[in-house]
Structures are given as structure tokens and as C-alpha cells.
Amino acid sequence: DAEITQSPRHKITETGRQVTLACHQTWNHNNMFWYRQDLGHGLRLIHYSYGVHDTNKGEVSDGYSVSRSNTEDLPLTLESAASSQTSVYFCASSELGGLGTEAFFGQGTRLTVV
Amino acid sequence: AQSVAQPEDQVNVAEGNPLTVKCTYSVSGNPYLFWYVQYPNRGLQFLLKYITGDNLVKGSYGFEAEFNKSQTSFHLKKPSALVSDSALYFCAVSTMIYNQGGKLIFGQGTELSVKP
Fold first, then answer.
1. CB of A74 closer than 8 Å to CB of A49
2. How confident is the model at residue B10 (pLDDT cuts 50, 70, 90)?
3. pLDDT at residue B52, rounded to an integer
């Protein structure tokens, strides 16, 4: 079955370190997204991509970057981790389609910055 | 700007009773609305969506949602709650930019607790 997987599931890192969270989907979806989930805020969009070599900033992109070198993967990099980036991160993907297209989510990565 | 509001942080229901999880939205133009559920330590799972047509949308696990344009609401409902329905529920609206399907704006979530 097609799926979307994130790794690692849990990560503890120190302030100032660079961290990369992996996201891999086998749906062959063109669209991929990174969200962060924080209490009281729901999910907020960090970055997204509509195809290979395409990347776009979302609502809360400061301190994060992504790159899309193939259809299956959209790694999220925290360039210099800060305590404010302690959160649960979700990757999602969807078909290239109209506004009614639902997204499929990974299991999430819990990141703690100490 | 589009937005979604879930006015209740938590909803408590007895097993077997009907449940409602509320959602209101603000968009310019026709809304594309979604409900997702998140079980503990899991990702979000798609429940149902409204694009157009019948105002009552049926989804997974016996859930349904009622779209009300005049009240700008999209409440999630289930006639008889189960303990296993206990989870975090998110309402979302799609961006209104054509060809940007899948890009969602989420409400803050509602924790549903169903007691035996």
C-alpha cells in the first residue's frame, strides 16, 4: 500500500544545531507539505512544494528550509534549531488537483530543542 | 484572508449519545471544507469533505457534517458516539488559489472525549 513516512519519530537536539526531518511518500503525489502542530494553534503550514524543484514558503517559514529533488521526498531542515521550534511536525502529500483535494498525512515527528 | 474557528477546545459526550463538533469558517468565494481526526501519537486521518452539492456530507466511521452557508458553519456530527471516537478533531478550509489543492488552513482543534 502507498504511504507517507516520516523519520525520525522522535528527536532531541541542542539549540543552534542543524536538524533535518525526512518525509518520503509512495503515493506519487506532486504536492507535498510540512506543517507544525502546537497546542492552541492547530496545524500551521511551514513550506510546500507542487513538484520537483518547486518550493514555497508557508505561514511560519522563518528558520526552516526545504528542497525537492525528486517526487518522493521533501526533507525539512532547521538551519539553527531554537527552543521555539520544539513542536510536532507533520508531512503531508496530495494529488495535483483542484481545491477539493484532500491531503494524506505522515505519523509526525516530535522534535524537542533543548 | 481565509480562517477556520473551532469554538470548543473540548467536547464531552456519553457513549451512545449524539455528538457535535463545531466549526465556522471565513472565506471569500465558495468554501472547500474538510474534517480530519487525530488519534493519540498518530497522524491526521481524512474523515470527509464538502466541495459542492448536498449540504449533508457523509464520511468515514459513521461521521457526517452539515454545511450551512448562511451561518458559515460546517459542524461534524455522529448520531451515536463510541468510546473509540475519542480523539482530536480538526476542521480545515482549502486555500482559494486555483491549482493549490491540498494546501489547508486548520482550526485549532477540538478534543472529543466519549465516556462509557
1. yes
2. very high
3. 84
CB contact under 8 A, B102 and A98: no
Chain B within 8 Å of A70 (Cβ-Cβ)? no
- Looking up cell 476542521 gives B91
Q: Is the CB of A42 inside 8 Å of chain B's CB atoms? A: yes
Cα–Cα distance for residue pair A100/A57, rounded to 1 Å:
21
pLDDT digits (tens, 9 = 90+) for A56-78: 999 999 999 999 999 999 999 99
Mean pLDDT over each residue of chain B, to the nearest integer: 91
Of A94, A100, A108, nearest to B43 by CB-CB distance is: A108
* Distance between CA atoms of residues A40 and B108, nearest Å: 5
Residue type, A92: A
Q: Residue A98: is its pLDDT beyond 70?
A: no
The C-alpha cell that represents A30 in the structure block: 506532486
Instruction: For residues B87 and B106, give the distance between their C-alpha atoms in angstroms, rounded to a whole number.
Output: 16
User: Parallel, antiparallel, or unpaired: how do β-strands A54-57 and A4-7 relate?
Assistant: unpaired
Say if residues A21 and A4 touch (Cβ distance below 8 Å).
Answer: no
Match 474538510 to its residue by C-alpha cell.
B34
C-alpha cell at A84: 521555539
